[in-house]
Amino acid sequence: MKNEEDRLIKKLKTGDKIAFxxxxxxxxxxxxxxxxxxxxxxxxxxxxxxxxxxxCWEKREILPDxxxxxxxxxxxxxxxxxNYIRDNKRFVYGYEITIDLIDDDxxxxxxxxxxxxxxxxxxxxxxxxxxxxxxxxLEKKKYVEVADLLGISVNTVKVQVSxxxxxxxxxxx
Length: 173
Hints:
By secondary structure, this protein is mainly α. 72% of the residues lie in helices and 2% in strands.
């Protein structure tokens, strides 16, 4: 497989469209699944993979020699997916985060630590606050729905969610 991959990359670097198509069909589905696993967003994952292959075609002359294209592709998709998360401030490994919870200067290598801190901080929320926060953010229930399910006012839901965000912001900075 490695020899075939090397041959295809050499052909791709010379502008061979057939080699490019073969590489695309060989890796695109797996790379999409990898991106989707990170972003949890099908549309964004498809865009990330498409952008990667467009860059591969446009910059084909400078693709790395004598290294695994597969490793290069997975690392590129991983980085692009983390950039998507950072830029959109939507998900950190499945947990919705608002723009005020994550500082702009969070580096990719800090996301794993952020995940750990976030899970710990959510777990340490007061029980009622945690339950309401999980229902509204993770389960994506509307405030009115949460209020009805718990027999409380919508304003109480808002106050508890606000309290949860404030506590999380303090704990994870």
